[in-house]
Each structure stands twice: as C-alpha cells, then as structure tokens.
C-alpha cells in the first residue's frame, strides 16, 4: 500500500505536491469514492481516477532539455505561454512529464523532465544538495572581493546562502559587464539573480550549464535527449 499522492506522481499525473492539491480539491476518486485525505493509501487493485479519468502507471522516462529563453518551466501555463513540456510533446513524447525544479522564463540551460515523482522529489529536496553551475552576464565589473562574498555566502531574506564556487570568465570594460561562473548547491527562489544583486551586479543573462554530473554537450537551445540508463542510475545515487 502506498500514499495516493505518491501513486499519482509515479503515474505521471503531477508532482506529489500538485497531486496533493488535486486530492484536497476533491478531484480524486478511489474505487468510485471521492477522497480528500492526504494520508489515504491505495494498493495495486484499487482504481484511482482524477476527474473521472483512470490513472495508469507509465514506465518512467527521463529527459534532458536545453531550455530556451522565453519558455515556462511548468507542465501548464494559465496564460497560454509555451512550456518546457510543450517542447517535448511537439516531438511526440507522449508521457505526462514535468520539470525537476524550475528555471526562470528568461533563463536558459539544462533542465530535467520526468514522470518519476519519487526521484524528482529527492533531487529537489534541500538535503541532497545537487550541484548546479550557472554562467551569468552581469552589470558592472565584478571584483575579487565580490567573488569572495559570493563564495562565502550572502544574505537573502535574512538567511545566508551556503558556500559556492565562483570564477570570473570574462570582463567587457567597454560595455561594463562581467561574465561569471557560479556553482551552488541550493535552489532558493531566484537565488542566483538575488545573490548577484546582493553584491551590486544585476543579472542581464543567465544560463545553467550543468546539473550534478550532467551537461548540455551536443544539445542546441530547444533540443533534448533521453538520459542513458547509466545516467539514471547515477542520478538515483546522488
């Protein structure tokens, strides 16, 4: 027996948190009866439906996308904007997938998508601290002291960020901009942009280069590929 939200996430209906909202809204039925208790457990013989549509356990799939600018990191968008899931569905990916974490609308780079709710939840949990490397084009010339502040941690909403790695890649003194590589192990709201703002350098462009051991080698903007079985195994071991 498993909690119903875990079963829904594993079936690719939605993330576990989003599934909990569906349950609380009275949109989930078990064996014909509406359930709203999040602790409800179901077995393989139980018939689970969402809005009257039976859910089916799909085989788990794992995709790596080079997210382009101007696309929403979500399965759906109320404003009708293009989402990362739309990109994969346009290329005949049929599974109900969703992104692992988020990249801002104007941020590009590496993003995982899957219907494996259990793995997605683990990867997004703060205690697992998956390393993520970004390259930011920022206003102004970043100094060594400012890089040190980023490495040691800056305060966001009263809490200090965890130690990070930094590298100044390029400086354009004519345009008064800097290109900085930053590796963090957290995933707080708008964290990278807010870290640079904290040291006086607003972000102009932001790109995520790596996620854990994964990179974008061979993928142009908007392209994606399936993860290899060895990569999936390694992700589960992070």
Describe what this molecule looks like in 3D.
This is Pseudouridine synthase. Residues 2-59 form the RNA-binding S4 domain. Keywords: Isomerase, RNA-binding. With 238 residues, the protein is α+β, with helices and mostly antiparallel strands. The chain has three domains: 2-54, Structural Genomics Hypothetical 15.5 Kd Protein In mrcA-pckA Intergenic Region, Chain A, CATH 3.10.290; 62-125 and 216-237, 2-Layer Sandwich (Alpha-Beta Plaits); 131-211, Alpha-Beta Plaits. The chain contains seven helices and 17 strands. It has helices spanning 4-10, 16-24, 84-90, 117-124, 144-152, 191-198, 229-237, and strands at residues 2-3, 28-30, 33-34, 41-42, 48-50, 53-54, 62-67, 98-99, 107-114, 132-139, 155-156, 159-160, 165-172, 177-184, 203-211, 214-215, 224-226. The strands form four sheets. Strands 7, 8, 9, 10, 13, 14, 15, 16 and 17 form a nine-stranded mixed β-sheet that branches. The longest helix is centred in the first third of the chain and has 9 residues, at 16-24. It is elongated.
């Amino acid at each position: 027996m498993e909690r119903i939200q875990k079963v829904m996430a594993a079936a690719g209906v939605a993330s576990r948190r989003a599934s909990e909202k569906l349950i609380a809204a009275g949109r989930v039925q078990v064996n014909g009866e509406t359930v709203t208790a999040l602790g409800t457990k179901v077995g393989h013989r139980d018939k689970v439906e969402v809005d009257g549509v039976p859910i089916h356990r799909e085989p788990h799939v794992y995709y790596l996308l080079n997210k382009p600018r101007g696309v929403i990191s979500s399965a759906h968008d109320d404003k009708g904007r293009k989402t990362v899931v739309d990109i994969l569905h346009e290329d005949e990916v049929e599974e109900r997938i969703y992104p692992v974490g988020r990249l801002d609308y104007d941020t590009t780079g590496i993003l995982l998508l899957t219907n494996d709710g259990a793995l997605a939840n683990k990867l997004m949990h703060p205690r697992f601290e998956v390393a993520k490397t970004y390259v930011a084009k920022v206003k102004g010339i970043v100094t060594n002291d400012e890089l040190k502040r980023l490495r040691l941690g800056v305060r966001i909403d009263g809490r200090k960020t965890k130690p990070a790695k930094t590298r100044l890649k390029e400086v354009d003194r004519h345009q008064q901009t800097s290109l900085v590589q930053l590796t963090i192990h957290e995933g707080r709201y708008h964290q990278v942009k807010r870290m640079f703002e904290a040291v006086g350098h607003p972000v102009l462009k932001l790109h995520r280069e790596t996620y854990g051991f994964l990179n974008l080698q061979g993928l142009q903007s908007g392209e994606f590929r399936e993860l290899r079985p060895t990569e999936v195994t390694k992700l589960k071991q992070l």
